[in-house]
Structures are given as C-alpha cells and as structure tokens.
Amino acid sequence: MARVPGADTHTRSRSLLQLQKLLNLRDAVSPLTLVLDSLEQTARPLISEVVTRAKMAKTKVVFLSFATLKKPRDVDVFVRATGRDLRTVRNELVAHYPVFDPTQGRDKPAQRAVVIVDSLNNLASTDPGSLAAFLSSIVTPAVSIVSVYHTDVPVILPRAFNEYEPHPFTILCHLATAILRLSSLQQEIERQKARNRALQEPEWGLKEGREGAIIGLRTNNSKDEDHGGVTIDMELRRRSGRTVSEKFILIPAVGPMIAPGRISLLSDHPMFAARGGADGAAGEPDEAPESTFNLGLTEKQRRDREGIVLPYFDAQTDIGGGEGGRILYEMGREDDFDDEEDEI
User: Fold this and answer.
1) Which of 10, 283, 310, 312 is 20 to 30 A (C-alpha) from 264?
2) Which CATH superfamily, name and number, covers 10-268?
C-alpha cells in the first residue's frame, strides 16, 4: 500500500494542534475537561500550564476550592465550596463570570473565563446526586470547566445513595467532553524499558500491593530534560461524535518568567519511537531477511538449476488421445521387474 507523502506529518501536527487548543481554551473546544491524576502524578503541572496560558491570553481564572486552603498564584478569583450549599456556590461563581458585549454580538463575550475545580471527589462523596446538575449549571458559552478527579482516592457514597444508579465517576466520564489521564514520564520510561526486555512492568503506589505508608512521586535534583515531565493520555470528544485519542508529553517551563511548557507527542520520544525508521516502516520491501548463512544463489548455481530436468517431465506434455496424465517410467538395472505388478 502506497504511503501518502507528508501524511504522518499532517497527522502529528493536527494532534498537537488539538491539545494546544484544549490547553489554550480556544473556540470552546471542550466545555468540561476532566483531569484524572493520582498520587504518583498530580495534576499540579497541568493546572499550572492551563493558568499560565490563560494569563497570556488574558482569560479570567476562577478557582473553585473543595480541598485547597490558600489561593494559588496567578488566580484571579478564589471561591471556597467546602461545606457550603451548592446553590450559593453557583451564584457566587456566576457573579464573577464575564458579561456579554452587545456591540460584538450576543454570542461573543468581552472576555472568556475558566473555572478550575481542584477536586471532585469531595462533591462525589457528599452529594453525588447533584454532581451532574451542578457542573451543567456552571458551564456557559464563555466559561470552560477544568476539573480534577483523584483516581486513587476512594469515594465513600452516602447510605441514601441508590445502588442501581451509576457511580459518580461514571457520570463524570459521560459528561466530560475531554478526558486527560496523567502519568509520570519517568515511570512510563521505566515501563517501556521493561517491555523492551520482555520483563514484568514495574508498579508504583497502590498497585505495588505493599503495606504501610504510600509515598508519592519522589522529586530529585536531576538535570535530565525528562525530569518533571508529564504524560498526557488525551481523549477528546468532538461535536461530530468522533473521538480523538493521542498521547503527549508535557515538560513544564522552569524559571520566574511566565512561559508555556513544551508539548510533544509521546511517539517522538526516543524511548517510545517506533522501530524501523521515522515513518514506521519495518524496512525496504526488497531487503533480505537476516540469517547466519547466505540465502541467495550465485550465477552458476542459477544456470545449473535452470538446466535440471524434473522427474516425469514428459507427463506434463500432451501425447494425444487424452493420455496427457500418463506416467512414463524407464526401468534401471537395479530395478526388480515383477510381472504381477506390471499386470496391475
């Protein structure tokens, strides 16, 4: 099958553009983004990246706190929601939403905003029945929601919760227009090394099955460019119903300057690059298989093979009278002639 020149480059560029638009909150590509993190890889680097890009685009940042005590840096509005009525929280959020400019049209706001929810686990445990209604009520054409859900934190459902209703996490995955699953780049590299050597993949955190205190991702002073990298498994659900899935690497920016991080495809990393070239081809079509001996023929061997007369070659020609399938056999001196076999 012929490969279209530049098709791989176009696909890679389009995938990167989708994540760029998602993080930049452009064109309302995802009204509700669900970020799945764990103790091994928190959502802090990704949330910082969203806040940084929002400040560069002059987008208003509203932080809805269920577990955070202090106002994070570069956040415009900090709203506490712990222990408060959801209606009161919604009214306070809506009061900080940007207003529409009548001179630019009814559907074009003067400013966009993003609401960052630090943890949906608390809301899923205290009031799972109001989870879907609350999230739907705070989404507007001018506001995007980026919510965090901790996959390794158990959700304790109240006794009044109907056991036949779907789990809050199932509801969140159904409502979300984009799901970002985060993992540590260093741990993914270790898993890939084990797969390359056909070994069992290492596990961390709860999956280790060890007793005692759980220690999250340890930080070190390594100067490796992969240090601090985050692997993003993106599942973007477009309006047409088609799902775009791709894996990326986010390297957060380091320094006092406000700058976005570096984003690349996971397949571009040397550890995860496909073998056989950049285009994914396993090799040239005419390339001979590797072997300890030569599978080819010399010119003399080829001529000798063409001059060999195969046994019963005369039976392949038409003798006439429908006897083309007759076998002709000439007896040799070592053959023992048997009259009975000849009669048969």
Assistant:
1) 283
2) P-loop containing nucleotide triphosphate hydrolases (3.40.50.300)
